[in-house]
Design goal:
The protein is built from ten helices and ten strands. It is of the alpha/beta class. It has two domains: 1-30, no CATH class; 85-221, 3-Layer(aba) Sandwich (Rossmann fold), CATH 3.40.50.1980.
Length: 223
């Protein structure tokens, strides 16, 4: 109250609890970029932030550069005939969190020239499945994408120790785990405004001949 701000940014995850602060007659603004189902849609929210800061021209130029590079990369995979399949996630407290076939992640995989294992689901949000359901649909996928926070060096053996059933997946057996360690890389902090970098990482993994000179930034194949 002492700061007397022009606006107050609030979390869209929080349901209710803003009744008292509303009495200050200061506009409450939620940031909903995470709900966008396309990578470029999420990145375009920099324009919204820029509007609040008076930096619209700078943001427009930045987004144009992001969009241009992203679409150049999409064009690289347009003629790819052999598209690998990819699953995502892992078990947490007995449940496996996945996102639907119309989600941001599924779109990234498509743009990178791959097929998401839940592509037949029409949802754009996330939901939980049991291990058996995931296994029935993901046991034979060529790749497995995983993002987590692991202390020390993450290995296939460490993954197997967390749940021995993981070793039954084809992607585990063939060492095709696409991995990002949140302790080492600012994945959630930066990737919403760097979709072209994330896309390049994935293309480098799925179709290495298309980007031979690319150095991975977030995603790498686990050795």
């Amino acid at each position: 109250m002492a700061l007397d701000p022009d606006i107050i940014m609030v979390s869209p995850f929080k349901r209710g609890g803003y009744e008292t602060i509303r009495n200050l007659d200061i506009p409450l603004i939620g940031f909903l970029g995470y709900k966008e189902s396309s990578p470029l849609g999420q990145a375009e929210w920099i324009k919204f932030t820029a509007m609040l800061l008076g930096l619209e021209e700078q943001a427009n130029k930045q987004f144009e550069a992001i969009e241009k590079r992203y679409m150049e990369l999409v064009a690289l995979t347009a003629s790819v005939e052999k598209k690998p399949t990819v699953m995502s996630g892992e078990l947490h407290s007995g449940n496996w969190y996945v996102v639907g076939g119309n989600s941001y992640l599924a779109q990234l995989f498509r743009d990178a020239g791959a097929l998401y294992f839940m592509q037949n689901d029409n949802g754009s949000g996330g939901f939980y499945l049991d291990f058996e359901t995931v296994y029935s649909q993901g046991a034979t996928t060529g790749y497995w994408r995983m993002v987590n926070s692991h202390s020390g060096t993450f290995t296939y053996e460490a993954l197997k120790q967390s749940d021995a059933r993981y070793a039954d997946f084809k992607a585990f057996k063939e060492k095709k785990l696409i991995y990002c360690n949140l302790r080492e890389k600012p994945f959630y902090e930066n990737t919403p405004v760097e979709p072209e970098v994330v896309l390049a990482d994935l293309i480098k993994i799925f179709h290495p001949s298309l980007l031979p000179g690319h150095t991975p930034v977030y995603y790498e194949l686990l050795k």
